[in-house]
Design brief:
By secondary structure, this protein is α/β, with parallel strands linked by helices. It has 2 domains: 143 residues, NAD(P)-binding Rossmann-like Domain (Rossmann fold, 3-Layer(aba) Sandwich); 191 residues, 2-Layer Sandwich (Dihydrodipicolinate Reductase, domain 2), CATH 3.30.360.10. 31% of the residues lie in helices and 28% in strands. It has 10 helices and 16 strands. The strands form 2 sheets. A 10-stranded mixed β-sheet has the order 14-13-12-11-7-10-9-8-15-16. A 6-stranded parallel β-sheet has the order 3-2-1-4-5-6, sandwiched between helices. It is globular and about 75 Å long. The relative contact order is 0.15.
């Protein structure tokens, strides 16, 4: 079977990783690289002389390509992806899919109309660790989930086009969206800009999934230490995903609470006991998530399958990011996350209520 002819748009921070992985895959062949800045492509003329290196999108789209990977600033994603889809190409876009919900929705509709694969490079969804987390949650190993707590902080890299929420939060938002398999009801966010006016470098985001399930995210460009950790806390067990622990990225804790049974009238007598059991680390097969993403992209094109990180997931993430920004501007005001194409709307306090009186741990 012949290799898929791929073009790369953008050779800045993430572009070289895409070139390396698409070139290494036995399923794809990198044919061309487009970047509007000629200086970025100059070093490639000595090391990758067999590639077409162009500075014009018109020249790029005139080449015999079948698919394209886009790794450019967020504000340019929609326009570039639209041109590629209109040209009949399959498209994978670096996260997030677009800068607005309206742009993302337009891309989803265009891809469907053209019969082309539209995928977002939410790379973590293709990591073996995240796949194992989903297996454990889906199997009921953790029991009903109580909360998700995520911390993604470090010192830099400062962005000038988007704030820290748009930069870092998509990683963990996509993981939670994938693992939970359901959409949040509402979102609230707080943030501060210390280094650049109007661009938050520290933020906290809270998602309400209903049924007493909350997810919290802390993202930060100012932390003196680098932390990449997520906690999935369940009624039976809890799981900690530490991305920086390469030998044991996942640990499952048989620690928690057990609630004594009581009627509503006796609820004030409810007894809570603590459980402290074993800690174990499931084996995680090594593998490069980005290479797995490339393989999945090609398989979806050839098999006409829906990608794991398809345009709909990209749209949901953009809707959450847009709503988080609105909430920050409103000093943490809670915003409803609807499923339509319009902008998220503000939520009245009386609408934010638990859907169940409580849970019993089991």
């Amino acid at each position: 079977m012949s290799k898929l002819a791929v073009g790369i748009i953008g050779y800045g921070y993430w572009g070289p990783n895409l070139v390396r992985n698409f070139s290494a895959s036995p399923l794809t062949e990198v044919v061309a690289i487009y970047d509007a800045n000629p200086a970025r492509l100059e070093p490639l003329r000595r090391t990758h002389g067999h590639l077409k290196l162009v500075n014009s999108i018109e020249e790029f789209l005139a080449l015999r390509l079948q698919a394209v990977a886009i790794a450019t600033p967020v504000a340019t994603h929609a326009a570039l992806a639209e041109r590629c889809l209109e040209a009949g190409l399959h498209v994978v876009v670096e996260k997030p899919l677009a800068a607005t919900t309206v742009e993302a929705q337009k891309l989803v509709e265009l891809a469907a109309r053209k019969g082309r694969v539209l995928m977002v490079d939410h790379t973590y969804l293709f990591s073996n660790a995240v796949r194992r987390i989903k297996e454990l949650v889906d199997s009921g190993e953790l029991g009903d989930l109580y909360y998700v707590d995520s911390v993604r902080i470090n010192l830099g890299l400062f962005r000038h086009d988007v704030n820290v929420v748009w930069d870092l939060a998509p990683h963990d938002l996509s993981i939670v969206d994938h693992v939970l398999g359901g959409q949040a009801r509402s979102i609230s966010a707080w943030g501060c800009a210390h280094a650049q006016a109007g661009i938050e470098d520290t933020a906290y985001v809270n998602l309400d999934y209903g049924d007493h399930l909350l997810a919290n995210f802390h993202v930060n460009w100012l932390s003196p230490v680098k932390v990449r950790q997520m906690i999935f806390a369940g009624a039976r067990k809890s799981l900690i995903f530490n991305e920086l622990n390469t030998t044991e990225p996942i640990k499952v804790y048989d620690h928690g609470i057990e609630l004594g049974q009581a009627s509503e009238e006796e609820r004030h007598k409810l007894l809570i006991s603590y459980r402290s059991g074993d800690i174990w680390s499931p084996h995680i097969e090594p593998g490069e998530p980005l290479q797995a993403m490339v393989t999945h992209f090609v398989e979806c094109i050839r098999g006409k399958k829906t990608p794991l990180s398809d345009g709909q997931l990209g749209l949901r993430l953009v809707r959450m990011l847009e709503a988080a920004t609105r909430s920050i501007r409103a000093q943490g005001g809670r915003v409803v996350l609807g499923g339509g194409t319009g902008s998220p709307r503000a939520m009245r306090p009386e609408q934010f209520a638990p859907t169940r009186a409580g849970r019993a741990a089991g």
